[in-house]
Design a protein that fits this description.
The protein has 18 helices and no strands. It is mainly α and 403 residues long. It folds into two domains: 2-196, Clc chloride channel; 214-402, Clc chloride channel (Orthogonal Bundle), CATH 1.10.3080.10. Helix 6 (116-131) packs antiparallel against helix 7, helix 7 (137-156) crosses helix 8 (159-170) and helix 13 runs antiparallel to helix 14 (317-335). The radius of gyration is 20 Å and the shape is globular. The model is unreliable at 1-7 and 398-403 (pLDDT under 50).
């Protein structure tokens, strides 16, 4: 028994040290990526007509770079799931510069894409590279999860949510308890590093003054159902469009050229630049009492699904936050509920439904909006999560539940 305890403690110390190193490295890379993205977004927003008309040309360059230099890197998150669930030996290191460059380019020219998926891929690559130096397959998987969590935390600075996000999407229906401690260490290290390097965290103090009565409960039930269905529609719609585009436009150059032209026209003529990029403008407007159109969430969903299925790089998470927040603000005004609280619930619930992640969503609510909001948001997230029908933007993770 004593020898077992010594062996476990040695592994715990090794994991902690490696997780700390991984977290610091990933936090620094996330800071570079995140601050670059902020600069690019500000540049595009200042002169949208300098960039939006040329989205298709940017897409052609992205496809060329991946075809010429990317090899397996174009699989993106697929590589992460192959490494975690199918024993893939390596994630190409070239993925990191390629995904950063292509995401910056996608955002500069207005594609409606996110950033968290990129950070998770960056973290997974670094974590898996370090883990590859160890002979233990279990240790390699633990450090892969640690890297994924650190990638999320370094960019979003929600270390507890990041830890559960990495575990939940990789191993659906199962908690890898052995990865919890190193993932937390890596997440906190990445979060602290990126913050020290000037990357700011988004947070908002939500007013939780809500008088609960049967009518309010009924309204909150309606809200929760809407969030769950919208998240499910996003996940299933994205899966359908990816398959449809790949079958109808088999040439990736033609696909991204045609879709880039369509997206450019839409992003220019439908509320110029409003639905381009991350969607942080919609998030800010939802929480600051600015005007939100009743259809903002729907158009953001539409442009995001088209952008990602066309082949632009970036991810889905931040647009999901924008969709949820703007839908929440709209429903709150319609039903006479507190806008901030319902927007916050939408922010995390649509994300929960679309990603099939439950605990991560709860901790996002706590770390972004305050732990006092959890008692109100938890039931809404739970209903939205149940209604997602096991759909997920991370389809490879769902397979793990079915095996």
């Amino acid at each position: 028994m004593k020898n077992i305890k010594i062996g476990i403690s040695r592994w715990a110390v090794l994991y902690a040290v490696l997780a700390l190193v991984i977290g610091v490295i990933i936090g620094a890379v996330d800071a570079l990526f995140g601050r670059g993205l902020i600069f690019i977004t500000e540049t595009r927003d200042a002169h949208p007509l300098y960039f939006l008309p040329f989205l298709a040309l940017a897409g052609l360059l992205i496809v060329y770079v991946y075809q010429r230099f990317g090899k397996d890197s174009q699989k993106g998150m697929g590589l992460v799931f192959e490494a975690g669930n199918k024993g893939r030996e390596d994630i190409p290191k070239r993925l990191v510069p390629l995904i950063i460059f292509s995401t910056w380019l996608s955002h500069l020219f207005g594609a409606s894409v996110g950033r968290e998926g990129v950070a998770v891929q960056i973290g997974a690559t670094i974590g898996h590279t370090v883990g590859g130096k160890l002979s233990s397959k279990e240790a390699q998987k633990v450090l892969l999860i640690t890297g994924m969590a650190a990638g999320f935390a370094g960019l979003f600075q929600t270390p507890i949510a990041a830890t559960f996000f990495a575990i939940e999407i990789l191993m659906v229906g199962k908690i890898e308890y052995i990865a919890l401690f190193p993932a937390l260490v890596g997440s906190y290290a990445a979060s602290a590093t990126s913050h020290a390097l000037g990357l700011e965290k988004f947070s908002f103090a939500v007013n939780t003054d809500l008088n609960i009565d049967p009518l309010v409960l009924l309204k909150l039930l309606v809200v929760a159902i809407c969030f769950g269905l919208v998240g499910r529609i996003f996940a299933q719609g994205l899966a359908f469009m990816k398959t449809y585009m790949a079958s109808k436009l088999t040439n990736p150059y033609r696909r991204i050229l045609l879709m880039g032209l369509i997206l450019s026209l839409g992003l220019i003529f439908i509320h110029l630049d409003r639905y381009a990029g991350l969607g942080t403008n919609l998030i800010s407007m939802s929480f600051n009492g600015e005007h939100i159109n009743a259809y903002d969430w729907l158009l953001k969903l539409f442009f995001t699904v088209l952008s990602i299925s066309a082949g632009f790089q970036g991810g889905e998470v931040t647009p999901l936050f924008a969709i949820g927040a703007s839908l929440g603000a709209t429903l709150a005004l319609l039903l006479g509920l507190p806008v901030g609280l319902v927007a916050a619930a939408g922010y995390v619930s649509v994300f929960s439904s679309a990603t099939n992640s439950y605990f991560a969503s709860i901790f996002i609510a706590a770390e972004v909006f305050g732990f006092g909001t959890v008692q109100y948001i938890l039931p809404i997230v739970t209903i939205a999560y149940i209604l997602n029908g096991n759909a997920s933007i991370y389809a490879q993770g769902k397979l793990n539940l079915e095996v």
